[in-house]
Amino acid sequence: MTQSTPDPDTGHAGAAQKATVPVPAAAGGGPISHAIFRLARLHRMFAGQLLRRIGLHPGQELVMMHLWELGPQRQAALVRLLDSDAATMTRTVRRLEQAGFVRRRPDPTDKRASLIEPTAASHALRSEVERVWSRLEALSTTGLSDEECTAALRTLERLEENLVQAATDPTATVTER
């Protein structure tokens, strides 16, 4: 199926754009998983379009949010906070450093390590990141009542809990529906 890229300001794409993608027969046993995949792909696409306007790529804003909130962090701590891998975090931090949004400084408690800290330039970016996330939330929840938003959040949190449990206890028995 050919899809045009929706505009994150209007949320609209070409007139031929369908709102949903049919579930392939091979994914018939996992319609919720397929829906999550499609939703995550679209969410990341819109995030990318909105963040690109302020000089960031998806995921970089999450690193910045943690640094703004927690202050300087070791890279290993960022890996844990964002459930990332070391190689991805190294690339992300390097790109943020090249853009002037973070800097490395020696860790005063461990000379072998360095701390990643937000720069003054990144603090100026914070309100823009908050605006982008508000816009992304509005795009994602258009037409939903407050109660529906609350129920959706509760359901997503439950799905996340299920997967976290499965990741921490691989011997847990999964019952198929």
Give an overview in words.
- The protein is 55% helix and 10% strand.
- The two termini are 29 Å apart.
- The mean pLDDT is 88.
- The chain has 177 residues and is mostly helical.
- The protein is built from six helices and three strands, in the order ααβααββαα.
- Strands 1-3-2 form a three-stranded antiparallel sheet.
What are the segments in which pLDDT stays under 50 over at least 5 consecutive residues? none
SSE succession: HHEHHEEHH
Taking Cα atoms only, what radius of gyration do you get, to the nearest Å? 19 Å
The major sheet is characterized as: 3 strands, antiparallel
Can you tell me the overall shape?
globular
Q: Treating each run of at least 4 consecutive H or I residues as one helix, how many helices?
A: 6
Q: Which structural class matches the secondary elements?
A: mainly alpha
